[in-house]
Amino acid sequence: MLWILVIVTILHVLPAMFWAGSTAVLARSGAVGIEELAYPQLGAAATAILAGIVLWVLNHKGAEGTGENVLKAGAGCAILAVLLPIATLPRVRRLIATADAGKLALRKNIEVRQRIAAGLLALTVACMVVWRYF
User: Fold this and answer.
1) pLDDT digit string, tens, across residues 106-116
2) Domain ranges of the chain
3) Which of 72, 41, 43, 38 is nearest to 55 (CA)?
4) Taking the model in full, what pTM does it have?
5) Backbone Cα Rg of the chain
6) Which of 49, 71, 112, 119 could form a disulfide with 131, with the two C-beta atoms 3.0–4.6 Å apart?
């Protein structure tokens, strides 16, 4: 059973690192590179969330305490954070198809969404780090 936890934890943490890291970079760079990162970001997010669900099922059986509620709050932030890039996909497609003149406004909108998602992911990480201490 331990090896399953190790593998699922790796499948949770590594994609989550890419997701959070790329979100933070896009949030601070004016969304430069979103055209190449949009789909890998969503794939990493989906993998991290699904592995997180598996980790929850394997590790949190029985009564729930404050720690589990903190972890749930972090999971909620992650789910909200993934909804923003999903909602941004039509803008990313338009960004790819648009001439240079119209790209600035699209990038600004995408950047704002990435900044919000980066904040939510920072809260997620904070919740995952501290949940055991409650």
Assistant:
1) 899 999 999 99
2) 2-133
3) 72
4) 0.92
5) 17
6) 71
